[in-house]
Write a structure and sequence with these properties.
This protein is mostly helical. It has helices at residues 2-50, 61-64, 72-85, 91-94, 102-108, and strands at 54-55, 112-113. It starts with a helix and ends with a strand.
Amino acid sequence: MKSSLTLTAVFMCLCCFFSTSSFAADAAKTNVAAETSKKVTTTVDKNTAKLASVNVNKASVTELQSLKGIGQAKAQAIVDYRAKNGKFKDLQQLTMVKGVGEKLVGQNAKNISF
């Protein structure tokens, strides 16, 4: 009887130990997930800050490249079109630039000004 109680006590202690260890591991995972979430949020905030409004009638090739999907060639095409045809009046007019379609303009609509 005495050995049965001792084994039961040892078993309960082990159960408590492993459940505490498991709890600590879960807590550590939660902390790592929270830290990762903070880093992602900070990165998104920094990237959003980079996407400030770009005035397509005044922007340089470099400034235009800050828009999503606009590389060197498309930015240069926008500047060339602007030099030849004058200032852009609306978003639809941007689609007249070679290589710039409605989808690209739609993705950047919130970040384009005139």
